[in-house]
Design brief:
Cro/C1-type_HTH; Lambda_DNA-bd_dom_sf; globular; DNA binding; mainly alpha; about 0% strand; Helix-turn-helix domain-containing protein
């Protein structure tokens, strides 16, 4: 899931820092998600998906293209 998130950030030409500021999520939250220490809350995903111009399903899908 994090890989989809990161890929979309790159495609948008923005930074992780900008995204966490815009969707009002702590940077540490996404850092822990990236490291596999936690999984994102549904509320966080619901904020992130539209920001990244994707559906919630697309964001969480790990099956590849």
């Amino acid at each position: 899931m994090y890989e989809n998130f990161k890929k979309c950030i790159v495609e948008l030409g923005t930074t992780l820092y900008r995204v966490v500021k815009d969707i009002e999520v702590a940077y540490a939250t996404l850092s822990n998600w990236k490291l596999g220490k936690t999984t994102p809350k549904v509320a966080t995903l619901k904020k992130a998906a539209p920001y990244l111009n994707m559906s919630l399903e697309e964001l969480i899908w790990e099956g590849g293209e």
